[in-house]
Every structure is written in structure tokens, then in C-alpha cells.
Amino acid sequence: MAAAWTGGLTSERSAERFLVTGALGCIGAWTVERLLSERIPVWTYDLGSDPHRLRLVLDEDALSRVHFIAGDIADLATFERAVAENGITHIVHLAALQVPFVKADPVQGARVNVVGATAVLEAAKRRAEQVKGLSYASSIGVYGGAELYPPGPLAHDAPLLPPHLYGVHKQANEGTARIYWLEHGVHSVGLRPYVVYGPGRDQGWTSSPTKAMLAAALGRPYRIGFGGTVVYQHARDVASVMIRAARARIAGAPVYNLGGSAASMEEVVRAIEAAAPESQGKIAFSPSPLPHPPAVDDGKLNEDLGPIRWLPLAEGVRQTVDCFRQAIKAGRLDIQRVALK
């Protein structure tokens, strides 16, 4: 079936076969959507089986083109077999437990986040003749509070000072990737998203701005759990960069900060109210800022991967609210599943 929908691609692209771990999550769902839009064959690898986030961004025809593989990311033998048997050429590794889940179960968090990432790198090493590219999600969580850094945008080479175990896990993965390059020549590119928003973002510490957009689409009040100024990135844009990074043959195992829209929470609320005027006065937020610098320098990313275009926040919020409205109308969104807390 793959050959039937690769017509018109360059010979290099027509040979690509992508595997996305964590594809049932938000960035994963958008990564699958972006690849399918290019008619690239896609396999997913997840322990879960419910594609409800994928259904937010894919119609049933597109969803039928996805090859689903059930597996534990920390199970090296099963993961390597999935890579080998399906001729995977590129891996986008997104599978991870986020901050609240790591805090609730640190041992399981380390197993998924650290052992899982190591299994991915080991599989890429063992199948080096086949796997041509690998990208993975690190996090802004590898950095500490704004008071620990000089004024201005966070530098590409700023010290890593994670304030929680999730950030420690991501820092460990960056170091593991570096060693796999030094000892085995495994190419990889790590990316550090900040606050990712958009359809499908319903879990994790920084999911509340997206939940506010859903609440606005439903006409309900909502209180966002943090305030301050941070960098916002639409999940579709992050997915596109993840794919570009997996295709890049950059020497070493570089890790990059991601750019986007630096905005205050007041600006986010105004964007939500502009997209859903009926939500005026219904969206509130906590004044407590996140424990990270309010802006980042993504110059090195643009230098090495080419200029990255980010969807302006107001437009991204409007598209997100519109997507939620359409999904609600079509019965494609299980409101009970997305806890508006």
C-alpha cells in the first residue's frame, strides 16, 4: 500500500519509512499528520491503543493509512524488531511520561523516559545500515529558573539546571545521545519544546492553555494553571521541525532550543477571547510563572536546519478553537476524556 501513495515524490523521499513513537500523544499525532500530508509511509509505536488525538487531526481515510504497532518503548527486542521488520529509515522519538506522571511514579517515569530513549538509540545503532535519521524530544525542562541565567533570551549553550525529575530525564537523554554519537556514530537531533499547544494537547504540566481554548469552544469558564511570559509553539509546527530534524544529517548529536511566540498569559487570554468572543471574562489564570526563562534564542536551530517559520499565536489559537468546534460538532471529541481541571 505504501508504494501507491508515494508517487510524485523524489526518489529519496519515496524510500522513506518513518516510525513515530508516542504517536498517540499530541506532537506525535501532528507528526503523523504532517508525514501523511507528504504521502510518506508511517508506522506508530505505542503501548496504548486509542487514537483519539489522531482523530482530531486526521480523517478516517488518512487514519487508515497509519500502521499501528503496539509495544513498550523500554522493550528493546520488540522495538528493534519493529524497526527491522518494517524497513524503518527514520525515527521520531516522542514517547515519554510528562511532569505530573513522573512525579507520581518516579521509577516508572525513569523506565519510560530514560530506558525508553536508550532503547531507541540502541536500536538505531544496531540497525545503522537501515536507519538514516533520528530525532527526539528533549524539553525546556532541562533548564532552571530565569533567575539562574543572564537577562535576555535563553542561550543555546546555557547551563542545564533541571528543576524536576522530568527535566533530569531529558538531560540524561541528551547525554546518552551524545555518547551514542561518540562511541557508535549514531546521528541524532534533540529538540527542546517549550509550551506546546493545539488540538490534542490535553496532558502535562503546560496543557492548560490548550484546555482553556477547548473550554472557550464549549462556552465554559476555565482557569489556566500558570501565568507569566513563555514561548508558545503550535504542535503542528513542532511536528514539522521534528521531521526536518530526523532528515538532517548533521554530524554529532546536537540539541536545539525551539523558537515560537513569546507571549504573556494576558496575550494568550486575549487571543482566546478574540477567537471565541463568547468566552469574554470566562478565562482566568494563576499569576504564578513557570520556573523557566521567558524567551529563548533559537538562532542555532535556524542556522543548522534552515529558517523555521512559526505560526503566530493569534492564528494558532484561532485554528485550535475552530478545530475543537468542528470536532465537537462532528462527535470526534470525547469531552469526558479531556478533564477541564
Topology overview:
Layout: H1 11-14, E1 18-21, H2 26-37, E2 42-46, H3 52-57, H4 60-63, E3 67-70, H5 76-85, E4 90-93, H6 99-104, H7 106-126, E5 133-137, H8 165-184, E6 189-192, E7 195-197, H9 208-218, E8 222-224, E9 229-234, H10 235-247, E10 255-257, E11 261-264, H11 265-275, E12 283-285, H12 299-305, H13 313-330
Parallel strand pairs: 1-2, 1-4, 2-3, 4-5, 5-6, 6-10, 7-9, 8-12
Antiparallel strand pairs: 9-11
Helix pairs in contact: 2-10, 5-7, 7-8, 9-13, 11-13
List the defining traits of the structure above.
3-stranded mixed sheet, Rossmann fold, alpha/beta, 14% strand, 7-stranded parallel sheet, disordered N terminus, 12 strands, 341 residues
Q: Helical amount among residues, as a percent range?
A: 40-55%
Give the ordered list of helices and strands.
HEHEHHEHEHHEHEEHEEHEEHEHH
Count of alpha/pi helices: 13
Average of the residue pLDDT scores: 93
Q: Major sheet: size, sense and barrel closure?
A: 7 strands, parallel
**Overall tally of domains:** 1
Question: What's the total number of strands?
Answer: 12
Indicate the overall shape.
globular
Which structural class is indicated by helix and strand composition? alpha/beta
* CATH architecture designation: 3-Layer(aba) Sandwich
